[in-house]
Amino acid sequence: MDILEVKAVRKIYGSKGKITTTALDDITFSMEEGEFLGIMGPSGSGKTTLLNVLSTIDTPSSGEIKINGTNVIKMKEKEMSVFRGENLGFIFQDYNLIDSLTLKDNIILPLTLRANKVKDIEERVSLISKTLGITEILNKYPYEVSGGQKQRAAAARAIITKPKLILADEPTGALDSKSAKVLLEAISKLNKENKATILMVTHDPLSASFCDRVIFIKDGSLFTELRTNGERKELYNKVLKVLSTIGGAGSDFI
User: Fold this and answer.
1) pLDDT higher for 17 or 144?
2) What is the DSSP letter of 193?
3) Where are the domains of the chain?
4) What is the number of other CB atoms lying within 10 angstroms of the CB of residue 184?
5) Looking at residue 158, what is its pLDDT?
6) 70-71 and 21-32: which strand pairing?
7) H or E stretch including 113?
8) Looking at the domain that runs over 34-58+87-246, which CATH code has it been given?
9) Which pTM value belongs to this model?
10) What is the pLDDT of residue 252?
């Protein structure tokens, strides 16, 4: 089943009579349930714009975006807000954790706001924290743990509501290579064990090597895509070759 369907999406900035910029041009792709998809491209390629329209932060100029079968473009703001909370999970580069709350309270906040039963909340946080390797630090505050641990807590918060789609925006961007690898291994485990559907925008070939598939964007258009055969090293090298063609960052494979 396709969790995400993107059809002929365009995003044009500017108005009639003025200079316009085409940020996205005829973007079409889909994601199956349980897939881990990477989006890559050089700076200014349209990655961020694509993430914004998929996350319903921005609206495309034309095209169709279906999440779990629902066309989100046609929704009104109030309806969209409810849909977003029930179907989307977010992992941000800067964590977006509340410093006055423990990691556990940060993670369970979405469920607390929904008034979920305490037993259900405890069961979910126990399972997810174990998967992400943060059980021992749940009672610590964000300022007491490392960036990598904060990002794993953010990932736990994103998955605890059991969203249909998780959108990750450069999740390793603020981490050193060792912490990034630990986080990516945790997210990959989350993807496989919980069948979480994850779309990750990244500039980093190492991060992309953990994906099932990588889509490359250049100048607002789809350039090419790669699929894994299960060998991370091979996918990593293929990603580097594509990036050398279209422009992009490099990273050491670890």
Assistant:
1) 144
2) H
3) 34-58+87-246
4) 23
5) 92
6) unpaired
7) helix 103-113
8) 3.40.50.300
9) 0.90
10) 63
